[in-house]
Amino acid sequence: MVFERRIRHFSPGPADYVGEISTRAISGCWFELHRRGGCGDAELVLLNDFADRYEIEIGDWIAFEAEEGVRWYLGRVEERESRSPAGVLCRLTGMAVELGEIYPGGFSRTFAYKVPPHRFAQTDLFPGDPDYSDETVDVVSQAPELAWLLLDRYANGQTHIQFDIENFSPLEVDSPVMSVKFRGEESLRSILKDLAMRNRDAAWGVNAEGEFYFQPNGTTLQKTLREGVDLLSLKEVRNLDQVYNRILLTGDYVYDAEQNSEVPANGFYRWRGTYVQPFSRSQYGDRRIRMWIPWIRSQTDAHQFVTEFFRVYAKPSSRYEIEVAGIENMILPWAGLVRLEDREGNELDTAPVETVRVQFDAVPRYELSVGPELPQELWPEPEHDERWEINRLGGGGGVVTFSSEVESSSGSDDSYESSSASSDPVSSSSEESSEELTSSESGTSTSDSYGSDSSSVVQSSSDGTDSSSDGGSNDSDSEGASESDGDSSGAGSGSDGSTGGSGSDSWSGDSTEEGSGGSGYSTDASEESSASGLCAQAIFDSFDDTNGTSLVSHPPDIAPSGAAWIDPGLQYQIQSGRARFIPTDADVGRARIASGSQDVQVSANIQAGTILRHGDEEWLGAVGLVLRAASDTSYCAVLVEESYVRLVQVTGGVATNLDSEPHGIAVGATFTVSAVCDGTSITATVAGVTVAATGVTASGGQYGLYAENTDDVETHHEFPSFSVNCL
Question: Which of 2.60.120.560, 1.10.10.10, 2.130.10.10, 3.40.50.150 would CATH assign to domain 539-726?
Fold first, then answer.
């Protein structure tokens, strides 16, 4: 490519071409591109002797091109400032600014602009809201689904942004939404930042063509840059200012008396939760950040955001500031990775580019920032300290641990580093193979345990107090409600959640937390952990193993001594950190593992398989959990089929339907199935749908995976994680 600087003027809209600004009229210009947001700020300085310098009005659009048809930047004129003798300065910002001018929902159908509150939920948790009867409701279950629906309802046709489903390719991880309500108070831009963080900190924004994108950071290598060859300058910054291991999260209001087991409310109060990352805390001391995320008010809608935040910021990471010249093709922050090398060609880092700043002169110069952005800039501090009502029934919160944590006596930072070639910021080396969230707020509390690819697998509850100290070297406060890009956001994990307490799929443990923030934990299920709430018969499996490993050859992460997977037909194997049901034609498979306990909570994260009929994807077959199994022909099961969730009991190979309810789960969706086996009662929950039965006679102590193919496979049933814990 031969670089030819071209600057084009559009008015009044970005498609209404006015003309090209002469190079001789330009005193200088620069622009920025961001992984979060796309085209960012820019400046264009026009000489005083440029006859048409005042023809550029506020609200006009300016495009920067490297050559004819190769656009690098598009921005709207936000400010025009005349200077003497320098000329006229135009300040620009990218098209994502329009997302900051849209406010989903409203206060009422009858006041002001007559827009009702808009609730997005997979179940009805908050009938006590004062505006409950006035709200509009859409059913959603996953964060990307909510993002697309918000864009379609509020931005499509209301902005200049183009929305193409081809550019909307979120990572296929479970990022559930339990219940959020918008009243026209928060911008769509701030909400999207929340939803992107839930989806493994996805890249999102509006590119130079005015197209919205929402996509994983990816593994495509855009460019290798070597010191002394490509780099004019290189600076590495690594400090504790970017490390946070405790979050005090303040969310929305919860109203009225107790409604159901999901909402143990009392009067009204502000939802709050405290979350701790113990491994980081033990390494770097107590480093707190405070966030306001005004649409969060359930444990489910909080802890995945917290998990993904800790995934990025609970460990020290290097941030590189580099200057480059002579690049033919622009490095786009949302398009993939760059590899940085020292003079000998040794890898310094391979990571996404957060920001590219281009000095758009006759010979362009590039400044790149590689490594996580400062959290203080993304979530700025509130203006003052605050206290809110205390929820007597308990707040949310928990302890979050990752599968990458290796607690060695050396305390080396390297044990927390990610593989530079991986898009997952969590290291693949692991001795701790569960990711747990254990409540530590006063009152009832909730704990969730995860696999490395799962957002929510197991939840446990215990009565305890917040033993986190307010002392520490870092005490940064952040406000989620800011209407700048510092707008904070929250996220959830699991298929069911609770408001300031434990959800319907919560574990019920009797342990009391001890120590600093409940930081102790163990992967040996034979040693009961008060922080994690695991009993001696507990099982947890993140299916982290070599691709192609048979399930029967794969040891679970946590299991009773001697327990191993039973798979009579050898129909399950490990693929990409998941247990995959591998038959490609009609078949049924039940894989089981012995817990030895009958009164348990069982949970699995499931990616439903699909078949292709007449060009359309359809449900592959039943998928779910095996419960109380004594053999391959004697068990109970909770099954998610094409239209129904069913609870069945099989005796001697003969199935009896115990309960069934319709569901609205999409074909090929990812969801969590949870079941409680208590005496002769079994209750199971899937995406807000509950099936239950009493008088159940099945009494085996094995639990596991159920999958069925009704036809030739298009995509397989997969299980990212599985867990069992005692009541």
Answer: 2.60.120.560
